Amino acid sequence: MSNVIETADVWVDKVNAQDVEGVLEVSDPNIELIGPRGAGFGHDLLVQWMENTGVKLHTMTRYADDHRVVYEQEAVWENQDGHVIVYTFMEIKEGKVTRLERFDNIDDAFSTSGLNEANKVA
């Protein structure tokens, strides 16, 4: 499980640094991205998302198993005041993020991911 958390943490750190190449290195070429504006696949969409959002994520709580994580995060977007609490679900296989989905509440994140409070990482 620690490798899954390490991969997810690196992914978040690279996003926060706006390190596009670094994010691509830990993202599967066919990564699935699902968010409030729709869904899609691939590195091109991921690059576009990074360039358009300028998001900074501060992870407060981690839930994980062998290949899935849900992170409770404080999100701040470029050119916006304040922050929002989001729940980021990542599936990770062979050291790469293969799926990323954002939720506005933990119940939906748990329902989709199959994780729950018992998966909380101390």
Main features:
40% strand, 33% helix, single chain, six-stranded mixed sheet, Nuclear Transport Factor 2, Chain: A, alpha+beta, globular, 122 residues
Descriptive report:
Helix content is 33%, strand content 40%. It is globular and about 35 Å long. The two termini are 12 Å apart. It has a six-stranded mixed sheet, with helices on both faces. The chain is α+β, with helices and mostly antiparallel strands. The mean pLDDT is 95. It contains four helices and six strands. It has a single domain (2-119), classed as Nuclear Transport Factor 2, Chain: A (Roll). It has helices at 2-16, 20-25, 43-53, 106-113, and strands at residues 27-35, 38-41, 56-64, 68-76, 84-93, 96-103.
